Amino acid sequence: MNKYKQVIVVNAGLLLPPGKMAAQVAHAAVAAMLNADPDVVESWLDDGMAKIVLQVSSEMELLTLYKRIEAERLPVEAIRDAGRTVVSAGTLTCIGIGPAPVNKIDALTGQLKLLG
Amino acid sequence: MNKYKQVIVVNAGLLLPPGKMAAQVAHAAVAAMLNADPDVVESWLDDGMAKIVLQVSSEMELLTLYKRIEAERLPVEAIRDAGRTVVSAGTLTCIGIGPAPVNKIDALTGQLKLLG
Question: Which of B22, B31, B114 is facing A25, going by the closest CB pair?
Fold first, then answer.
């Protein structure tokens, strides 16, 4: 059982093409990791960097979740698209959370659906 | 114009669900970054961490590309799935390249298609 994990939550309502969404998820993973506790990051990396991608259906839901996570002082990063291609500039595409303790992340994201 | 970029190349032949593939792409982005030159990484992060997701259609193609990139001494990481869910354990899902100079990466991956 992993002690730490990272969760990326995407705004599935944007219906981004899979490759575009994957790049946004990767941005979120890197940005959230850089913002996390270095000791936690090291342990998480050693342990196979557990990572899961979940979804919400709107930017509003994603923003609400972001604020709840921030209030709990977990490391979180919001990714906004530069808007050169598929969506308008500044569109919130996903948020990256952690790595952080599994139980703390689950308390905030445990009810969300996997991105299929 | 960015000086550095990161490219993730996925094995689209696996037909992974988008969320599963996004998590693999994020693994590759993190792993390749940790393997890259720290000064390059810093410059790339400051400059918005340019990242693009390309595709090949088979594991064989991906392995061949991996070896060519390794031979050119660019930072590259192969991601193999733990195989708990969708694919067999050890399946090569994607490779992460860089961040590295745009021209060097383009010379090796410029002919590949975007993951749609």
Answer: B22
